[in-house]
């Protein structure tokens, strides 16, 4: 069995590594090739490009990198065919991977897409192209299956691997001890501006300025800022030179520990907001896009929310501060509310337990079994 996998994000690398581990149990002689990060490579993937090759977000950014992305996709397509791939698994990064899946499927390669694009939220017409591209869709969230069933696309809800990895009851004391914090230090606030370079560029300074403002209001506040990669660490170090924050720990990774240790957090919209949910950490969600991408998204978005906690709850459970609302005054006000109104923070935390349980399904194993079933169909 020759399995070709393509992931373009740190979150995709995490998903891919868990999936490969389970696929090896079902197909002991399987070989793995494609594009992935250190975690997937540790499980046996031969990666042709660095993980960040596909890590581009927004219409403007994609257009700027389009020639390079087309070249990479063409190379991966030719490589998969010459290698003799039996199965192609695209992990997230839908604007890149679905096109590759479609081309390989026309050449007789079975195709699976892991992590549904947000077709339920915007660009719903994409479902027609998706149907032509894949033999199976694997979704992380329960409400995502409806649109695929409506269009007769084979789909399986597998749950979320991070929900399996993180404990239902976080050990806050142990996390604080591991980070060298003491119980008396209050409040502890985690800052997570995202894993992409563009996210750190747009949100990094904003989050640090917000921390400066909070520090003036709450002098005993301690901040944790986990950098998603070595490159993000270096970029944040440069930002800290311009926006220094007293009592801030800049961490290499350790996002799970930081979120479990924190009393509350300020996070970028995306996977990290879901991670904060699993850690039961009250949060404020923020995001900024390139101006044109934001303008375009307002016409295409079909849901009242963008953050995963709110989408799962189907209500405004956490504050979403996007684009113009993503400013120091607003974010400071929101964090201050969580610090001073325990009932608001408690409502979030209580809801997080129920949502965590809903997504805790042994996702990697479920995904591997669904793939094996599809191959035998």
Automatic annotation (TrEMBL):
Transmembrane segments: none annotated. It catalyses: a lipid X + a UDP-2-N,3-O-bis[(3R)-3-hydroxyacyl]-alpha-D-glucosamine = a lipid A disaccharide + UDP + H(+). Keywords: Glycosyltransferase, Lipid A biosynthesis, Lipid biosynthesis, Lipid metabolism, Transferase. InterPro entries: Glyco_trans_19. Pathway: Bacterial outer membrane biogenesis; LPS lipid A biosynthesis. The keyword Lipid metabolism applies. Signal peptide: none annotated. It comes from the Bacteria. Pfam families: LpxB. Its EC number is 2.4.1.182. Condensation of UDP-2,3-diacylglucosamine and 2,3-diacylglucosamine-1-phosphate to form lipid A disaccharide, a precursor of lipid A, a phosphorylated glycolipid that anchors the lipopolysaccharide to the outer membrane of the cell. Belongs to the LpxB family. NCBIfam families: lpxB. This is Lipid-A-disaccharide synthase. It comes from Marinospirillum insulare. The gene is lpxB.
């Amino acid at each position: 069995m020759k399995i070709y996998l393509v992931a373009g994000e740190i979150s995709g690398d995490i998903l891919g590594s868990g999936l490969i581990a389970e696929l090896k149990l079902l197909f002991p002689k399987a070989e793995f090739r494609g594009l992935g990060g250190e975690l997937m490579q540790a499980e046996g993937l031969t990666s042709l490009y660095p993980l960040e090759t596909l890590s581009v977000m927004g219409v403007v950014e994609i257009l700027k990198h389009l020639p390079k992305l087309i070249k990479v996709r063409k190379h991966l397509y030719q490589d998969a065919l010459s290698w003799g791939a039996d199965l192609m698994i695209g992990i997230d990064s839908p604007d890149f991977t679905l096109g590759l899946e479609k081309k390989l499927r026309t050449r007789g390669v079975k195709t699976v897409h892991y992590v549904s694009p947000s077709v339920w939220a915007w660009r719903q017409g994409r479902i027609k192209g998706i149907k032509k591209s894949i033999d199976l869709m694997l979704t992380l969230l329960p409400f995502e299956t409806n649109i695929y069933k409506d269009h007769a696309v084979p789909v399986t809800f597998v749950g979320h691997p991070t929900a399996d990895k993180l404990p239902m009851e976080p050990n806050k004391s142990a996390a604080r001890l591991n980070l060298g914090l003491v119980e008396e230090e209050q409040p502890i606030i985690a800052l997570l501006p995202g894993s992409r370079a563009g996210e750190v560029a747009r949100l990094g300074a904003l989050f640090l300025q917000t921390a400066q403002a909070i520090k003036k209001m709450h002098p005993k506040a301690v901040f944790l800022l986990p950098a998603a990669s070595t490159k993000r660490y270096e970029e944040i170090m440069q930002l800290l030179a311009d926006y220094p924050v007293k009592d801030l720990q800049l961490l290499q990774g350790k996002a799970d520990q930081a979120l479990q240790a924190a009393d509350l957090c300020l996070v970028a919209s995306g996977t990290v907001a879901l991670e904060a949910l699993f850690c039961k950490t009250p949060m404020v969600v923020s995001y900024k896009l390139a101006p044109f991408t934001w303008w375009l998204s307002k016409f295409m978005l079909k849901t009242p929310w963008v953050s995963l906690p709110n989408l799962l709850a189907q209500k405004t459970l956490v504050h979403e501060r996007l684009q113009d609302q993503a400013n120091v005054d607003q974010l400071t006000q929101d964090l201050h509310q969580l610090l001073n109104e325990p009932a608001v923070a408690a409502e979030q935390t209580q809801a997080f337990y129920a949502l965590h349980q809903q997504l805790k399904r042994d996702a990697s194993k479920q995904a591997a079994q669904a793939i094996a079933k599809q191959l035998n169909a």
